[in-house]
């Protein structure tokens, strides 16, 4: 039986985000576990690149159950995704995934804000969580819950995904595309003609010829990476500084530092770090999690770097769909927004099911 040639694409030569990041690499990994496919990942950016065009390295990287998917096929895939991530945390420490306590604080005053709406679709029913003690709730929040989840050190995890793909025979090449079918016409796959293209171009699906999905818009998230160890993950879906600002704290495994965020400015293409927002992020993080600095101010944060990542959000949710474009079948997998890491496995499973 002859193998089918599959190209997972992510790079196009335009002005903004274009990569086969965590979604593309996870999809390639799962497809490579299935016999009968010869797979090439063709992307502009690879692990090790730090560029505004490449969102995956800037992400906090964690897992939060999605209440909006209950009772759907996607919910079943999400359970399988959790099983894979949990297995990595327990049995594959070299992947950079580890278990960590996760505290989520809620304030009624944030209801209706842009950031609260984003978190609302992510948060699972409170019955799945334990309620935190009253002294924590009294810190100015209305409710607080805690559960154990996974935190991902993206600087380790992205290269690990590549290594697993390489072990399964996946080929990686740098390439830019202006049209989705260029992946076929340029004969990127050395094995001959292309049987299938998997479109993991993220935000650039809005500009990629042959796709041009105008439902895809950026939602930049600004972060500060520090050496201080919080020892846990903390989230609150709103702050007193604006309805498009949030606070999240994620301590990565293996000396990966702690991510302080952030913002959720939907529709904003600005890639520049805003200095006063960085200060607000640090102040809110220190107030919410005093253990970061031992109860001291932001001058006691040991800063590694500042960054901005453009989340590839899509009105109506992620698109995982098979489509005939010209003479070639294309499976689209893009639009995960701020849930790229946790969604990567269930999107890949869905993509695999459509082949």
UniProtKB/TrEMBL annotation:
<dbReference type="GO" id="GO:0005737">
    <property type="term" value="C:cytoplasm"/>
</dbReference>
<dbReference type="GO" id="GO:0019478">
    <property type="term" value="P:D-amino acid catabolic process"/>
</dbReference>
<protein>
    <submittedName>
        <fullName>D-amino-acid oxidase</fullName>
    </submittedName>
</protein>
<dbReference type="Pfam" id="PF01266">
    <property type="entry name" value="DAO"/>
</dbReference>
<feature type="binding site">
    <location>
        <position position="338"/>
    </location>
    <ligand>
        <name>D-dopa</name>
    </ligand>
</feature>
<keyword id="KW-0560">Oxidoreductase</keyword>
<dbReference type="GO" id="GO:0003884">
    <property type="term" value="F:D-amino-acid oxidase activity"/>
</dbReference>
<feature type="domain" description="FAD dependent oxidoreductase">
    <location>
        <begin position="20"/>
        <end position="345"/>
    </location>
</feature>
<feature type="binding site">
    <location>
        <position position="201"/>
    </location>
    <ligand>
        <name>FAD</name>
    </ligand>
</feature>
<keyword id="KW-0274">FAD</keyword>
<dbReference type="InterPro" id="IPR023209">
    <property type="entry name" value="DAO"/>
</dbReference>
<comment type="similarity">
    <text>Belongs to the DAMOX/DASOX family.</text>
</comment>
<dbReference type="InterPro" id="IPR006076">
    <property type="entry name" value="FAD-dep_OxRdtase"/>
</dbReference>
<feature type="binding site">
    <location>
        <position position="248"/>
    </location>
    <ligand>
        <name>D-dopa</name>
    </ligand>
</feature>
<dbReference type="GO" id="GO:0071949">
    <property type="term" value="F:FAD binding"/>
</dbReference>
<keyword id="KW-0285">Flavoprotein</keyword>
């Amino acid at each position: 039986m002859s193998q089918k040639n599959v190209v997972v694409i992510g790079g196009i030569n335009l002005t903004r985000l274009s990569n086969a990041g965590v979604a593309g690499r996870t999809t390639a990994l799962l497809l490579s576990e299935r016999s009968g496919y010869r797979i090439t990942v063709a992307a502009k950016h690879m692990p090790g690149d730090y560029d505004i065009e490449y969102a995956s390295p800037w992400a906090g990287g964690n897992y939060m159950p999605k209440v909006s998917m209950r009772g759907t096929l996607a919910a079943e895939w999400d359970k399988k995704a959790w099983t894979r991530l949990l297995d990595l945390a327990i049995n594959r420490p070299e992947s950079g995934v580890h278990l960590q306590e996760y505290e989520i604080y809620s304030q009624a005053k944030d209801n209706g804000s842009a950031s609260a709406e984003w978190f609302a679709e992510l948060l699972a029913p409170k019955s799945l969580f334990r309620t935190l003690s009253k002294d924590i709730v009294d810190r100015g929040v209305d409710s607080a819950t805690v559960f154990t989840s996974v935190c991902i050190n993206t600087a380790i995890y992205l290269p690990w995904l590549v290594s697993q793909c390489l072990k399964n025979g996946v080929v990686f090449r740098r390439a830019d595309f202006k049209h989705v079918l260029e992946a076929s016409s340029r004969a990127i796959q050395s094995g001959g003609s292309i049987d299938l293209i998997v479109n993991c171009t993220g935000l650039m699906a809005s500009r990629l010829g042959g796709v041009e999905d105008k439902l895809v818009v950026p939602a930049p998230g600004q972060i500060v990476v520090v050496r201080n160890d919080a020892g846990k993950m903390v989230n609150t879906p709103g702050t007193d500084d604006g309805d498009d600002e949030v606070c999240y704290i994620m301590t990565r495994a293996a000396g990966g530092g702690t991510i302080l965020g952030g913002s959720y400015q939907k529709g904003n293409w600005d890639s520049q770090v805003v200095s006063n927002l960085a200060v607000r992020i640090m102040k809110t993080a220190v107030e919410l999690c005093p253990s970061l600095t031992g109860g001291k101010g932001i001058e006691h944060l040991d800063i590694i770097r500042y960054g901005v990542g453009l989340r590839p959000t899509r009105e109506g949710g992620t698109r995982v769909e098979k489509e005939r474009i010209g003479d070639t079948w294309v499976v689209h997998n893009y639009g995960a927004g701020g849930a790229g890491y946790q969604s990567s496995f269930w999107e890949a499973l869905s993509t695999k099911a459509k082949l």
